[in-house]
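Please fill in the sequence for the structure shown.

STRUCTURE ENCODING:
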């Protein structure tokens, strides 16, 4: 196991040079999101010293979107690249762990020539036709794995942003399928799409065949006099609750921000899209709540 203190400042080719023959790095993107496929990439860098074109390359999560796009183009120019993915249906059927391994195997098989050795980020080893070494925090240690992490991340992000044009209510253009507040609200308002992972919470809890609570929720402008009486909180995440009035109309969120529970007002205007900081209880936006409990929120919103 690799400790953080032992990580090099930048990924190197030291692990690649320990092995004879051709070496590829493999990494994935998209294990945690609520929607979209999991994508893996396999990268074989050219032999010789560290390419100057990849100076500054590291784990894709530590790079800006602009840097990732730049390195993506550079990697495509100098390296052999294979990309594989596992669909939402495969994720739900196999589970995310086995779907992840399947995507890695497909990425490996998509390379133009089979490597002799594979360095894989993490602890799990996909079944490949060569020697496989799992490297904890490999995207911080191996340049090949870092390159694969960028290719996988950019490929998947592009896919999700394209889907956002067809499904604009979930914030995929920015969250690329991860469980942000906007994504959760989109699920409540519009329900899951064909691209959502039905085996993942909250999709498999809120929208299970036995669950009906969400059907009474309304996402519309509140035209009448607002009242805090009879408010209801609906659990979304450990740090996030949706707040509805007694008629089932959505009026806000209770969110844990830096250890403090906070009320965020939400209003609905033309087109039915939510807007934070507006709505009938906008004057309370950003105020603290003692706990994520209906009575605590009622107490806050009933103050003068």
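FILLED IN BY: designer on duty
SEQUENCE:
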């Amino acid at each position: 196991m690799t400790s953080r203190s032992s990580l090099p400042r930048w990924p190197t080719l030291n692990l690649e040079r320990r092995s004879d023959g051709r070496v590829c790095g493999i990494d994935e993107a998209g294990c945690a999101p609520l929607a979209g496929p999991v994508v893996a990439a396999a990268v074989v860098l050219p032999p010789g010293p560290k390419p100057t074109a990849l100076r500054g390359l590291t784990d894709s999560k530590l790079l800006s979107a602009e840097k990732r796009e730049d390195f993506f183009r550079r990697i495509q120019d100098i390296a052999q690249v294979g990309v594989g993915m596992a669909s939402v249906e495969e994720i739900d059927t196999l589970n995310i762990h086995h779907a992840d391994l399947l995507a890695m195997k497909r990425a490996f098989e998509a390379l133009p020539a089979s490597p002799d050795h594979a360095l894989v980020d993490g602890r799990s080893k996909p079944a490949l036709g060569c020697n496989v070494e799992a490297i904890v925090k490999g995207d911080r240690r191996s340049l090949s794995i870092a390159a694969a992490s960028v290719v996988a991340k950019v490929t998947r992000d592009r896919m999700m942003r394209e889907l956002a044009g067809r499904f604009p209510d979930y914030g995929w253009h920015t969250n690329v399928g991860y469980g942000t507040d906007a994504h959760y609200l989109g699920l409540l308002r519009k329900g899951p799409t064909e691209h959502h992972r039905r085996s993942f919470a909250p999709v498999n809890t809120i929208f299970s065949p036995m669950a009906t609570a969400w059907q009474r929720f309304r996402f519309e402008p509140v035209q009448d006099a607002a009242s805090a009486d009879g408010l209801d909180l609906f659990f979304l995440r450990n740090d996030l609750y949706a707040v509805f009035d007694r008629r089932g109309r959505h009026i806000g969120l209770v969110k844990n921000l830096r250890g403090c529970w906070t009320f965020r007002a939400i209003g609905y205007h033309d087109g039915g899209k939510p807007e934070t900081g507006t709505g009938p209880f906008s004057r309370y936006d950003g105020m603290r709540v003692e706990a994520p409990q209906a009575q605590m929120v009622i107490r806050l919103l009933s103050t003068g």
